[in-house]
Structures are given as C-alpha cells and as structure tokens.
Design a protein that fits this description.
By secondary structure, the protein is an alpha+beta fold. The chain has 2 domains: 111 residues, Probable inorganic polyphosphate/atp-NAD kinase, domain 1 (Rossmann fold, 3-Layer(aba) Sandwich); 117 residues, Sandwich (Tumour Suppressor Smad4). The strands form 2 sheets. It has a 15-stranded mixed β-sheet that branches. Strands 11-12 form a two-stranded antiparallel ribbon. A hairpin with a 2-residue loop joins strand 5 and strand 6. Helix 2 crosses helix 3. The longest helix is centred in the N-terminal third of the chain and has 14 residues. The radius of gyration is 19 Å and the shape is globular.
C-alpha cells in the first residue's frame, strides 16, 4: 500500500498539470494510493506512524528539498520504505538520489531500487539533508580529536544528502558544488575575515568528514536543520544509529 504526502505548495494552479500527469502515470503502474496534504500544523511523524498501522508499506514524499527534509527529519525512525517524487523548484536532493523531476520520477518509484541512507542527529532531533550554522564566533571539535577555531566569525555547514553550493565571494560567477560522500557526514567550515569598511569576506571552505562533532559558541548562534531554525549555545552532531530505507534511481551519486 502506497501513501503519498503532498506539500501544500502543490495546490497552486501552475502545478496542476504536472500533478495530474504524475497521478495518471502512477495509476498506469498500479501504484496509486492514498493522498494526504501537508501543512505547517501537521506532525508528519504521527501521520506516517498512523498510516503504517493501517498497512502502509511505502510513504512517498511529493514536493521539493524542503518537503523531503520536513518529512524525514521527523519520520527517520519509522519502519517503512520511503519514496520521493520531486516537483517544483529547489530539488537538489533528487539529483543525489538519482531521481528525475516530474513524471519520470514515477519510473524510479515503480522499479523500487532501494538503498539505506544515513541520518544525522543534532541535540535530540534528526536531519537528513543539511544543517547550517550561521556565521558566529565558534569552536568546533570533531571526532573528539581535532579542534578548529577562527580569528573571528565562522560558518559551518554539515551535509548529509544535500550538496554544498558555494561561491568565493559576491563577484565569483562560478558556483562550486561538492556532493557528500556515503557513510559519514561532511562539515564545510568557512572562516570570515574582516575587510575594512566593507564588512566580512568568506575564505575558501575546509572540508572535514566526521562521525561526531561538537560546536560551541560564547553567545547563542542560529542553526537551521532541514528547514527548522533554532538558537543554540552548544550542538552535538553525529550519525544516528538508524537508517532510512529509500527508493533511489540507478544514477544516484553514492
């Protein structure tokens, strides 16, 4: 039994034809199922657990990177297979999973090629795609062996599934992309240096694959993980013990 979780933005008229085409394709494959619509007031973990109790074996996320993170950051420990139908803008995770956007994603879903995906853990909550610590005065210790600090502010981005995109500065026209590797989380540390009256300038990032990392600040700093923003004074980040059973395409990047 398939259950499809639609992001609320898919109600917009400009997505109507794409959604209709997907639903026809799913019916042709014999994998159409129950449709539930998400919003900011719904606890996705409760929904997924309830549907599993009712017999659901496959939960399919329909939307973009934000939808993917919203569902799986809450439901990472649920015992089912997850699928993904990427629709709309901001779909970088789909490329990593080898899933094309739109109607062609139905082909991947129907083949049910499955892989176990790593899950990140931060201060008692999960994240699947990316964690972002905004520029602050930080101290970073990873794998309980190495300490990293900066003379002033530092930005930290921890990638699991979502690639890291960056530019050296505002004038840099080239977008640099680094895909995360399987089996470990990857941290991208970018110090900021004061540049006279012109504010701060980012330095090139240093890349640290790790299994456990602790970030502390002298003052509370802002953390965004899979779209959820919080203020923290200390965060502990590591790989969770559980993994996600995910349907992927043959062109996946891991």
């Amino acid at each position: 039994m398939y259950v499809y979780l639609y992001d609320n933005f898919l109600r917009q008229k400009n997505f109507a034809s794409a959604i209709r085409a997907i639903e026809i394709k799913l019916t042709d494959y014999g994998i159409a199922g129950k449709i539930l619509r998400l919003n900011n007031y719904i606890d996705t973990k409760t929904i997924v657990e309830d549907e599993i109790k009712r017999g659901a074996k496959t939960i399919v996320i329909v939307g973009n990177d934000a939808t993917f993170g919203q569902v799986l950051s809450r439901s990472a420990t649920c015992s089912c297979t997850f699928g993904f139908l990427p629709v709309g803008n901001d779909n970088t995770i789909a490329d990593v999973l080898g899933i094309p956007e739109g109607i062609d994603a139905c082909d991947v879903l129907s083949r049910r090629r499955r892989e176990s995906l790593d899950v990140g853990w931060m201060n008692s909550r999960y994240f699947v795609s990316k964690l972002h610590v905004m520029p602050s005065k930080l101290e970073v210790i990873y794998d309980e062996r190495f300490k990293v600090t900066a003379s002033d502010k530092m930005e930290v981005i921890v990638c699991n599934l979502q690639p890291f995109y960056w530019k050296r500065d505002k004038k840099d026209r080239e977008q640099h992309i680094v895909h995360p590797q399987d089996g470990k989380l990857e941290a991208f540390l970018r110090p900021l240096t004061k540049k006279g009256w012109w504010g701060y300038k980012y330095e090139d990032p240093s890349i640290f694959p790790f299994e456990e990392m602790t970030i502390t600040g002298k003052e509370p700093f802002t953390v965004e993980a899979d779209g959820k923003v919080s203020k923290e004074i200390k965060v502990k980040i590591k790989l969770a013990h559980s993994k996600i059973d995910m349907i992927v395409g043959r062109n996946r990047k891991f």
